[in-house]
Amino acid sequence: MTEVSVTKDAVPTADDLVVLKNVNKHFGALHVLQDIDLTITRGEVVVVIGPSGSGKSTLCRTINRLETIDSGEISIDGKPLPHEGKELARLRADVGMVFQSFNLFAHKTVLENVMLGQLKVRRTDKKAAEEKARGLLDRVGVASQADKYPAQLSGGQQQRVAIARALAMDPKVMLFDEPTSALDPEMINEVLEVMQQLARDGMTMIVVTHEMGFARSAANRVVFMADGRIVEEAVPDQFFSNPRSDRAKDFLSKILHH
Amino acid sequence: MFDFLEGYDVLGAFWMTVKLTALSAVGSLVWGTLLAGMRVSPVPLMRGFGTAYVNIVRNIPLTVIIVFTSLGLADIFGMTMGAPDDFKVQGFRLAVFGFIAYTAAFVCEAIRSGINTVPVGQAEAARAIGLNFNQVLRLIVLPQAFRSVIGPLANVLIALTKNTTVAAAIGVAEAATLMKTMIENEAQTLAIGAVFALGFVVLTLPTGLVLGWLSKRLAVKR
């Protein structure tokens, strides 16, 4: 069990952006998160991988409290996660989230999707919000689609708009919950490229994914989860070439050899 | 052939029906939306109130509610709706009040079923960018819910139009009141019935057609 966590006893520093301490969660009888300790420092890109049902998506969703936790502590930028109300909404505005199924607001245009949070949460004036939204859409390569509705876009385009929508809030950290799992194969790369650019720009990112190529090239650290626990944490090269736990060896042998 | 209509203000009576319908429709849409908001609220007290209201009100016959507004609210509790001396105005306002209270329960349930058609991810994404509960409901969930229940709401509106005839029970001078008077005074009972039936079809048929067209046009594409 000494390999369970490399950060378990680390003293929190000012650079620890997201800290999970001894987090537990149950879905009924199922213990989906078991004693999770994880610290993400500013600017770090952490990729969470593991078999289905291992709790990685749940872990990701607890960080902005879309899932509540039963025990333990989560803090972001030194502040414990508020339970509800205004405080929680304010915190969520600082934590960008990208979903597997995009979840763009279906009744609003692409541009309105990216402006909404700025207007209603940040209270930016309309002109500035539109300027910023168009800039971000340009950055993710969908500027020409600004006036269309989400249903008129391809999956890859929708997901890039979703990334722009999250970035419009100037988040401190971005959570990606299997961002490419619902995409056709030829659209995965256009999304990964945007994410890689974000990583290079120094964004703090927590990415739940099955894209091992992305983990290798963009991650500072790989967190391997199985059965609700963090089984192994390592830098990508070390994890992929020389995993320590049997569970990780078994998992990698199944996904890398075909 | 239509000389039995002479001396009766049929158009005026239907105009009263239209006024009853329009005011009650707007009022029940507002109150019904608020009730639907309560029924999906995270606050248990509001959820409880919304559920209790809907289940009590929609199970009481409309006639009982309308008669109660007059005999109960006005006569016993002195709720004169700002017109203590003008009984015509008072009866009209009491009837509208009763129709709103009753119809809102059905509007609420239609909207709530619309809320259930909005994928959970829409609300999650809205919360994730920092919108609070009211904003999530007002900006994301309700606009999509409304568009998916225009059809059911058209049904409620058509039912309301016809339900306004119950206002005859407290003497509001709408279409059914006039029909009763005419049937008592004239011989052509069937023709009178046909005229009033046609009048209601003229009111409700376009409602259904226009809202049906709108519901197709405004449907949210996913």
TrEMBL record, chain A:
Keywords: Amino-acid transport, ATP-binding, Cell membrane, Membrane, Nucleotide-binding, Transport. Pfam families: ABC_tran. Its main location: membrane. It is a peripheral membrane protein. PROSITE patterns: ABC_TRANSPORTER_1, ABC_TRANSPORTER_2. The keyword Transport applies. GO terms for cellular component: plasma membrane. GO terms for molecular function: ATP binding; ATP hydrolysis activity; ATPase-coupled polar amino acid-transporter activity. InterPro entries: AAA+_ATPase (IPR003593), ABC_ATPase_HisP-typ (IPR030679), ABC_transporter-like_ATP-bd (IPR003439), ABC_transporter-like_CS (IPR017871), MetN_ABC_transporter-like (IPR050086), P-loop_NTPase (IPR027417). It is found in: Cell membrane. Coiled coil: none annotated. Residues 18-252 form the ABC transporter domain. It catalyses: a polar amino acid(out) + ATP + H2O = a polar amino acid(in) + ADP + phosphate + H(+). It comes from the Bacteria. Its EC number is 7.4.2.1. Belongs to the ABC transporter superfamily. This is ABC-type polar-amino-acid transporter. The lineage of its organism: Bacteria, Bacillati, Actinomycetota, Actinomycetes, Kitasatosporales.
UniProtKB/TrEMBL annotation, chain B:
CDD domains: TM_PBP2. GO terms for cellular component: ATP-binding cassette (ABC) transporter complex. Signal peptide: none annotated. InterPro entries: AA_ABC_transptr_permease_3TM, ArtM/GltK/GlnP/TcyL/YhdX-like, MetI-like, MetI-like_sf. It comes from the Bacteria. GO terms for biological process: amino acid transport. It is a multi-pass membrane protein. Residues 14-211 form the ABC transmembrane type-1 domain. Keywords: Amino-acid transport, Cell membrane, Membrane, Transmembrane, Transmembrane helix, Transport. The chain crosses the membrane at residues 12-35, 56-79, 91-111, 189-214. It holds the Pfam family BPD_transp_1. It is found in: Cell membrane. GO terms for molecular function: transmembrane transporter activity. Its main location: membrane. Belongs to the binding-protein-dependent transport system permease family. HisMQ subfamily. PANTHER family: AMINO-ACID ABC TRANSPORTER PERMEASE PROTEIN YHDX-RELATED, MEMBRANE COMPONENT OF AMINO ACID ABC TRANSPORTER. This is Glutamate ABC transporter permease. It comes from Streptomyces fructofermentans.
